[in-house]
């Protein structure tokens, strides 16, 4: 049995696909199996995948099923105790899997190991600054459930996780469009510690077709995760980690208020901001948003 199963998801990224596959095949950890699943691409991606069919198991969809249905199917065709995902527009550096496995093997409580990453543009050039507009945790390891309640901390292509996490936490939620990774990391963080490799071993490509630019669908995902995965479980979550958890849930409820505001649901926004301040009353930003939602009602 291989040590790591690699699932490469492909959809209309022919320009980048060969580079992604080559970055997998160049890994210093050789005890791997590779499954590439193409979700009915309309470009040259299927033909490119066939060139690697002697080294990669290729699954071709006739109709588009979505990211997380594809991921679940790809994972179901693998068997290794650890799983890594590579999106077909991203890249790995050669030692990525080897160094992640080394961290995973230090502690059975670790369920997920991620690496530092660098944003690159469509041509592979590094992008300076913070193009994602997201503040990442300065020491992203250990018990990260509270931090993950406030935002996604990991780039999907940077993650390696144990197969047992799927058995304990469930598989990827197929109803989601682009935030199913955050949903999965939240569930894993409830039961496992998080490991981290501080070297930049993942290259995350930013281009005009990234999922994050499909604003309405991403907003719908954001709403579902906040309502279904977070808000419905607040009493249970408050029994963990004391004040740190109260602050995290306060921030999450404030984020839900912003989502409601963006959807024009002013009364719901006001309610979410009010609940947020009951948990985290010293957060000035939430008071300001509450004031705006009150005057807009």
Descriptive report:
Helix content is 43%, strand content 18%. It has two domains: 4-213, Alpha-Beta Complex (Spore Coat Polysaccharide Biosynthesis Protein SpsA, Chain A); 215-295, Serine Threonine Protein Phosphatase 5, Tetratricopeptide repeat (Alpha Horseshoe). It is of the alpha/beta class and 297 residues long. The chain is built from twelve helices and eight strands.
Which word captures the global form? globular
Please tell me the CATH architecture of the largest domain by its name.
Answer: Alpha-Beta Complex
What is the CATH domain class of the largest domain?
A: Alpha Beta
The total number of structural domains is 2
Share of residues in strands: 15-25%
Arithmetic mean of pLDDT: 93
The profile of the biggest β sheet is:
8 strands, mixed
Give the helix/strand class. Answer: alpha/beta
CATH topology of the largest domain: Spore Coat Polysaccharide Biosynthesis Protein SpsA, Chain A
Strand order of the largest sheet: 3-2-1-4-7-6-8-5
Rg: 20 Å
Share in helix = 40-55%
List low-confidence stretches: none
| Overall strand count | 8
CATH superfamily of the largest domain: Spore Coat Polysaccharide Biosynthesis Protein SpsA, Chain A
SSE arrangement, N to C: EHEHEHEEHEHEHHEHHHHH
